[in-house]
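Incident log, structure service

09:12 report received: a user says their structure output differs between two submissions of the same chain.
09:20 pulled the input from the user's history:
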Amino acid sequence: MKKVIIFLMITVLVTAAFSCMLTASAAEAPAEQAQVEPAEEKTDNVTGTKAVAAAIVVGIAAAAGAVSMTVAISASAGAMARQPEAAGRINSAMMLGLVFIETAIIYALIVAVLIIFVL
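09:34 re-ran on a clean worker, output below:
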């Protein structure tokens, strides 16, 4: 099941990356076209592409974080069921791992904000 989820996430990432590349290349008008896009429309296309890229970054990070948190909680619950006397240590280790996973998601959110406002 884990391999299927990872495969689907990679497929979505690759598809989104190709669609962003196609959108960006379509936004650049070829030299053969006689029509010239106004600068305002070109800016809107770039802003839209940035928004899509930011949404992809946050979406993939959140999905990967949710899956990894689910796996961690499931494993720790199973370990606590097998060894109830070690439940405190297992719970502490699980919480520390969940904090690290959530930190990675927050970093993805920061990257998305940088994509929108800086690039």
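09:41 both user submissions now match this output. Likely a transient worker issue. Closing.
09:42 reviewer note: Residues 2-28+39-117 form a domain with the F1FO ATP Synthase fold (CATH 1.20.20.10). The CA atoms of residues 65 and 100 lie 10 Å apart.
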